Amino acid sequence: MPRPGGRLVMGEPDWESLAIDHPDLALAREAGFAVRDVVPVTSVFREAGAADRVLGLRRTTERAVSAGRLSAAEAERWLGHLATEPFHAVVTLHVVVAEVAA
Question: What is the spatial distance between Cα 72 and Cα 80, in angstroms, rounded to a whole number?
Fold first, then answer.
């Protein structure tokens, strides 16, 4: 039984988000650029509607039904859950900064 004033802190790695840089920058170099920096920007969504507008959750779910990965009932249950339950989604975008070599 938790005590008043107690605190629980949990952490879990998201191995699906693991990204390892690849050394092949030939495309940028061939175009005359030098990659100066790669900056990870993490977007956090706490509202399903905002996440859907950016991530296309409904559209992707409909595609999964069309491809036979989900039944229509499973898709509606999933989307209903997103709309009514506490919501949390995170996605990391890697912003590449490249400059014309001097």
Answer: 12
Q: How does pLDDT run across 9-44, given as a tens digit for each residue?
A: 887 777 888 777 766 667 787 888 888 888 888 899
CA-based nearest residue to 39, from 58, 21, 59: 21
**Nearby residues of 65 by Cβ (< 8 Å), 6 or more positions away:** 71, 72, 75
To the question of pTM greater than 0.85 for the whole model, the response is no
Structure tokens at 81: 């859950």
Q: Where are the beta strands (DSSP E) in 1-102?
A: 33-45, 89-100
Burial grade of 98 (CB within 10 A; 0-12, 13-18, 19 or more): middle
Tokens, residue 46: 């706490």
